[in-house]
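#lab-general

N.A. 3:47 PM
ok so I finally got the sequence cleaned up, no stray characters, all 90 residues accounted for. can someone with queue access submit it? mine expired

B.Y. 3:52 PM
send it over

N.A. 3:53 PM
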Amino acid sequence: MPETRVTIASEVGLHARPAAAFVQAAAKRPCQVSIGREEGALVNAKSMLAVLSLALKHGEEVTLRTEGAESDAALADLADLLARDLDAVS
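B.Y. 4:20 PM
back already:
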């Protein structure tokens, strides 16, 4: 199962708007997607409540993991999404 570390780029962290963009992108993927801190359990990245419960801040490094169909492409695309300031996306 592919896994990578990525730094949250959104200036105010992964709050409602950037989290929604990330969760929507994850939900479009056929594979399982998980996100979390290195020291904590990973949560379902397709769940808005689970992602918001992490309270991820700007500059925080997270683990992103995918498993199943198209997992490599999903991992690359979702990591790229988190590495951008999603508040700047219109």
